[in-house]
């Protein structure tokens, strides 16, 4: 069995190298650690990952971009909410319903409607927690 990597012991340059590698299992933890230390460096990488194929990496990247460049993250969400994967949708819900830095509702109304529709249409239990969180924050959207 391979030893676990202690990301906290790595330099920023090493973390950046791993975060830009093809090692999907190490990429997200390295990117998160880099974000803790050097948000700008992590954000540059995260922006690139938003266009990638791995849904879990896109979810991680969206979370980082939201915290550092919220307008860019909101624009991404508006363009992808209708068809994104469940992991990305769950991150969107967390940002819209639980993050204290969510923008004024008037600026994200269209996005909220898209997310509401996705949550209503989603099958299975994978989004149950997200659905509950979202409609607890925006109960008026439940009846529309």
Would you kindly provide a written description of the structure presented here, covering whatever features stand out?
- The chain has helices at residues 12-19, 24-37, 39-49, 55-68, 70-80, 86-97, 105-121, 128-137.
- The radius of gyration is 16 Å and the shape is elongated.
- Helix 1 (12-19) packs across helix 2 (24-37), helix 3 (39-49) crosses helix 4 (55-68) and helix 4 (55-68) runs parallel beside helix 6 (86-97).
- It folds into 2 domains: 1-68, no CATH class; 70-144, no CATH class.
- The mean pLDDT is 91.
- The protein has 144 residues and is an all-alpha fold.
Shape: elongated
Provide a count of the helices: 8
Largest sheet: none
The rounded Rg comes to: 16 Å
Secondary-structure element string: HHHHHHHH
Low-confidence sequence ranges: none
Number of domains: 2
Nearest-integer average pLDDT: 91
How much strand content do the residues show? under 5%
Distance between the termini: 52 Å
Structural class: mainly alpha
According to DSSP, the number of beta strands is 0
Helix amount, in percent? 55-70%
């Amino acid at each position: 069995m391979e030893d676990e990597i202690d990301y906290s012991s790595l330099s920023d340059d090493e973390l950046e190298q791993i975060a830009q590698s093809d090692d999907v299992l190490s990429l997200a933890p390295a990117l998160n650690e880099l974000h803790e230390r050097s948000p700008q460096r992590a954000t540059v990488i995260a922006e690139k990952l938003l266009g990638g194929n791995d849904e879990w990496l896109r979810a991680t990247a969206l979370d980082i971009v939201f915290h550092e460049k919220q307008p860019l993250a909101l624009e991404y969400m508006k363009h992808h909410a209708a068809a994104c994967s469940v992991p990305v949708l769950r991150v969107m819900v967390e940002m819209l319903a639980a993050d204290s830095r969510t923008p004024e509702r008037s600026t994200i109304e269209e996005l909220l409607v898209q997310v509401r529709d996705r949550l209503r249409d989603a099958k299975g239990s994978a989004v149950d927690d997200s659905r509950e969180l979202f409609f607890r924050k925006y109960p008026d959207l439940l009846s529309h």
